[in-house]
């Protein structure tokens, strides 16, 4: 298993190109299952999670073509997907276990083919991660659902029907899955209390290009008129707001200046407001954001995660890493996941002063210095938080279990090295 070695202390300065968004790309890939035609997705990030979902698509019978796309400062991937016919309607345990977002194939397979068998993903490091909202909604659309041997077996031999659904929680995954299912259902589906993350608007944009009839983009109610068929389309994936937010914090924690090329400030209002409140200069440009913390007189801030446009849970661990070295006390409250403080014991091993209260709150009291240690995390964002701590710790930090980072941060060492970090990957055979 690879490791990442960081020698802390460098002030970061320069430009980082923000890649296409992982959490947009995943449902976009699943959307291509809704048509026999070819769908081309560009600005796709080069990440192991994308590879995992592509492997499942191949298993289902999708033909995938992959091309490098060389732009001025950056190389990304373009993939074309075509599922003229299916080889299988089963998403096996081995695929879903590796990547929960495999469950995005549920809605498309059920609505196009009337049958799907999906291994239940189970819990993960950040919480129980149930699928009840996805399954209840599909039942309301007329699907017959059974749980057998760890699999969801769903049938709708005569197709799905439109329904009026009210989500108990604004789940991102359920919003995507039910939206995907409703595009080919008979009649109109109304979904209330949907998630409004920018990745959902990106999915709606692709579906509209494919011929879907959807109203209510960027609102809490979506109305979808089912159509008989969808057709091919081309789409450019939006920039990754969580990657951008993570590098914004890298600028803050090293008291540096980083230009986040391609980042969309509108998608990061809550975290950018916290940075501004910490006296960090945030400049919005036409195609990016500049984070300048060189002269900032930072003080602790409270953060509370919430559904979009609230403060994103996917930036909670990274902000906590920043708060460990900012003078004063900061209260961090996690409202989305029940177990997302797994980075805390590792940060404490590096000298942070953090007290966790119950499952949801932590008080962070800023210390003068962190000191390097071998660390490891159990999820993607927590791993990035440890990289951030390593960037300012005294000595050499070794972050283990780098495969978590490879799921969601494209070319992490390359991007950080380009802005002056002393960071390298140590390749190790398994
Ligand atoms: C997405 O997960 C993201 N993943 C997560 O990012 C992110 O943390 C999360 O949204 C919240 O923003 C992807 O987009 C692939 P949810 P998702 O359904 O869709 C509860 C990362 O680091 N819930 O919005 O799985 C659930 O337990 C990852 O990139 C139910 O109760 O999240 C949670 O408390 C980690 N029943 C809340 O809703 C359900 O059927 C939000 O979950 C579904 C969810």
Indicate the overall shape. Answer: globular
Kindly name the structural category. Answer: alpha/beta
Largest sheet: 4 strands, mixed
The poorly predicted ranges are none
- Our count of domains comes out at 2
Named once each, the bound ligands are: ligand EPZ
Q: What is the first-to-last residue Cα distance? A: 5 Å
Mean pLDDT: 96
Would you kindly provide a written description of the structure presented here, covering whatever features stand out?
The structure is a single chain. By secondary structure, this protein is an alpha/beta fold. The chain has 2 domains: 3-19 and 239-426, Alpha-beta prism (UDP-n-acetylglucosamine1-carboxyvinyl-transferase, Chain), CATH 3.65.10; 22-236, Alpha-beta prism (UDP-n-acetylglucosamine1-carboxyvinyl-transferase, Chain). The protein has 14 helices and 24 strands. The chain has helices at residues 22-31, 48-60, 93-98, 106-113, 132-140, 172-182, 198-209, 241-253, 269-277, 316-323, 344-349, 380-392, 403-408, 412-418; strands at residues 3-7, 13-17, 38-44, 63-71, 74-82, 90-91, 115-119, 144-148, 151-155, 164-166, 188-192, 213-215, 221-225, 233-236, 257-261, 281-285, 288-292, 303-304, 329-333, 353-357, 361-365, 374-376, 396-400, 422-426. The strands form 6 sheets. The protein has a 4-stranded mixed beta sheet with strand order 22-23-1-24. Strands 2-15-17-16 form a 4-stranded mixed beta sheet. Strands 4-5-3-14 form a 4-stranded mixed beta sheet. Strand 22, helix 12 (380-392) and strand 23 (396-400) form a beta-alpha-beta unit. Helix 1 (22-31) runs parallel beside helix 2, helix 1 (22-31) runs parallel beside helix 7 and helix 8 runs parallel beside helix 10 (316-323). The protein is globular, with a radius of gyration of 22 Å. The termini are close together. The structure holds ligand EPZ. Residues 23, 26, 101, 127, 129-134, 169, 171-174, 195, 313-314, 336-337, 380-381, 408 line the site of ligand EPZ.
